[in-house]
């Protein structure tokens, strides 16, 4: 029984839940995260998105079971290896997906529920068709990240900065195309060139130069749009308490711009993982496994919290 639960958790991919923290983006940057009326639905949104994303992974693994059995790594997944039957997987997927929609409608709100439904339809369409269409497959993966950010805004009833949306799109595209680049590298290491298409059809049609160009474009786009976002949302002045101890040139600073170097380093470090370590097939595994990148994300998060919530308290 314990082993069965363990195999279910493996298929649910708890590490992937890290992506769902993006639902907190809107309330965090609006400065209202710790308002109970905002925090509670945001936490509920996080858990509901974790449910629906896990359900989508069950469906994906069922559809891909034949291809996964030819993959050097994915062949060890519970469904592909036969540790979980397809019937059981369908039942668990149904419970998670339908349950997430019901919970979203009951506890969060109608717009958030629509976002969940759209996410489900996107994942199903991706598994059945989009994953086999070059470029569209990566755009679909990136769209999943963007939906999470919008869903967080719907749950918290908080508006989103246009620059934050654009920065999210840039980062999402970077992760999606970086994932494809690393998948090609890993398959080349383990399989013969004529076997690559057996595991993911689109990889055979992705030229390395195209992926490199898209990765370069996405990283540049992400850095520029985030920089503009940081400039736009930074406070225009400081409190009287801080102005007493700050020099004149810092009395009306763009505080949020202090986080730009962290974003530049984080993007550069991710590119290093893609091209030098050749290990970015799973973004959440990169985050947890690469200490410099993890430290950068933690430091960025703490800096954001200090600027948005700490500076007003100090004043």
TrEMBL record:
Keyword Oxidoreductase found: no
Membrane topology: Multi-pass membrane protein
Alphabetized CDD domains for the sequence: PT_UbiA_2
Keywords tagged on the record: Glycosyltransferase, Membrane, Transferase, Transmembrane, Transmembrane helix
Record localization: Membrane
GO (cellular component) term, any one: membrane
Record has ATP-binding as a keyword: no
Transmembrane segments: 21-40, 87-105, 134-154, 160-178, 210-233, 253-272, 293-314
Pfam families in the record: UbiA
Gene Ontology MF: a single term: glycosyltransferase activity
InterPro entries given in the database record: UbiA_prenyltransferase, UbiA_sf
Full protein name: Phosphoribose diphosphate:decaprenyl-phosphate phosphoribosyltransferase
Organism: candidate division WWE3 bacterium GW2011_GWB1_41_6
